[in-house]
Task: inverse folding
């Protein structure tokens, strides 16, 4: 049965679309409407409009539009009924139980969120129990205050195979529930045991404030050092950003992206409430899309080791030609017993202090400057052969810049580094630019001659034999996912 119209009318009446959209998009009032950058596609000039009079949104760039329910459906790729549930929870309404295709899915999601919340409370309680002493001591050694531990809901999983199973069984949860939530594991013999053991626990909270998963740092030499929840109906590692539920409220105007939980938490404790972590070093397209709802300026603050530099370069490649202004904060190495060792944001805050970090943040370089420094660091520029090799590589980098003004500015800087004339470097960049344009033209020609190839799945094992039929099936499946009333 469909959701009653009377309920939908009340839901829409209680939902102000300007307030709703404003939670995800920075809006500026111009005339009667509000304008911002579209959350559904990349753009640098606002074409996304919200009308408080009509209670609708419209993007004049990608064409998407509608009311509050449509906004949530598009934003989170939810079917109609689940989008209604999100809005109803927001305004403290209970969706009438009318059955339907997604009723079971909704019930399962709510059950998983409830059990995750219960687990987070148990972990937090254990942190202050005798068996959590090692975890508490570790966090205190890292300099975290009790207020910070509470703010982030940190906890501890004891070194027992059935600690959480037993604790949640007392609250009425069975083993199947913990398996479904990714909190328990089943081995080949069918034995079920806790996934997290002897670990400091970091609850992962989404932008709505729900606990969707966990990360755990082991207390001994076991591997992996950090263990995350598996993918579940409420958690996907590549689509969520740690601490964004707090950072989205920051007035800093930018987001600091770190590698891990501790870096982010230490920055928050030091007053940088705009820090987040990407659940590991690999930033994803989905995380970028999520971040774009809240900021247009990113500061990459990864570790200053080789892995951190590689991660920074990968992130810069993903962020190329995006709507973001991107800067890179390179943390200096620290002198310890006569040797310079790497340090992360947590180390820097601990040894240098918040003021020193603020100075670094103010002087952070943009993505082009970071890449140029990385290239220069590979060559001995006192050697003529090395200078020639540097000029070849740096000209390829500069030729990839979309702006002629940027190419002009950075070409002059590269010439200074190589100690050659700007005119000579400019000729090298122009040659590299022509080579790159020729490659792109050939690639586009091949694509134009074979348009069907662009519609095939990227995963080669899923190649379609009959493309037209497969595309039609995709369309039908999409309709079913968006509107369960199409099912008999």
Result:
């Amino acid at each position: 049965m469909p959701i009653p119209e009377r309920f939908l009318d009340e839901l829409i009446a209680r939902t102000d679309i300007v307030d709703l959209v404003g939670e995800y998009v920075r809006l500026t009032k111009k005339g009667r409407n509000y304008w911002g950058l579209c959350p559904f596609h990349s753009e640098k000039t606002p074409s996304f409009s919200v009308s408080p009079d009509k209670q609708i949104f419209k993007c004049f760039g990608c064409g998407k539009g509608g009311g509050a329910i449509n906004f949530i459906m598009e934003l989170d790729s939810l079917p109609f009924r689940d989008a209604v549930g999100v809005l109803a929870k927001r305004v403290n309404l209970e969706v009438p139980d009318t059955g339907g295709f997604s009723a079971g899915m909704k019930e399962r999601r709510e059950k998983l969120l409830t059990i995750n919340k219960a687990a987070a409370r148990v972990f937090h309680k254990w942190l202050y129990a005798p068996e959590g002493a090692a975890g508490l001591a570790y966090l205190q050694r890292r300099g975290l205050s009790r207020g910070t531990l509470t703010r982030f809901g940190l906890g501890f999983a004891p070194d027992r195979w059935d600690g959480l199973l037993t604790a949640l069984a007392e609250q009425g949860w069975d083993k199947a529930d913990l398996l479904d939530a990714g909190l328990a594991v089943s081995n080949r013999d069918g034995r079920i045991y806790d996934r997290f053991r002897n670990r400091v626990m970091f609850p992962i909270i989404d932008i709505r404030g729900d606990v969707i998963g966990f990360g755990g740092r082991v207390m001994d030499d076991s591997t992996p050092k950090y263990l995350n929840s598996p993918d579940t109906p409420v958690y996907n590692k590549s689509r969520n950003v740690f601490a964004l539920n707090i950072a989205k409220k920051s007035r800093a105007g930018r987001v600091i992206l770190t590698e891990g939980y501790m870096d982010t938490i230490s920055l928050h404790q030091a007053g940088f409430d705009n820090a987040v972590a990407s659940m590991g070093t690999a930033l994803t397209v989905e995380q970028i899309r999520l971040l774009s709802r809240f900021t247009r300026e990113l500061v990459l603050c990864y570790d200053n080791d080789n892995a951190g530099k590689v991660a920074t370069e990968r992130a810069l490649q993903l962020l190329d030609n995006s709507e973001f202004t991107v800067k890179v904060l390179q943390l200096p190495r620290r002198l310890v017993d006569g040797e310079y060792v790497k340090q992360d944001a947590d180390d820097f805050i601990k040894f240098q202090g918040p003021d020193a970090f603020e100075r670094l943040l103010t002087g952070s370089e943009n993505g082009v400057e970071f890449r140029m420094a990385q290239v220069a660091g590979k060559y001995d520029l006192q050697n003529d052969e090395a200078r020639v090799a540097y000029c070849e590589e740096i000209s390829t980098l500069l030729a990839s810049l979309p702006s002629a003004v940027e190419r002009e500015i950075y070409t002059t800087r590269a010439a200074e580094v190589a100690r050659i004339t700007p005119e000579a470097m400019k000729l090298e960049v122009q040659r590299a630019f022509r080579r790159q344009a020729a490659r792109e033209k050939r690639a586009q020609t091949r694509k134009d001659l074979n348009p069907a190839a662009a519609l095939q799945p990227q995963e080669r094992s899923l190649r379609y034999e009959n493309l037209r039929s497969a595309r039609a099936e995709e369309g039908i499946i999409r309709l079913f996912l968006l509107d369960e009333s199409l099912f008999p």
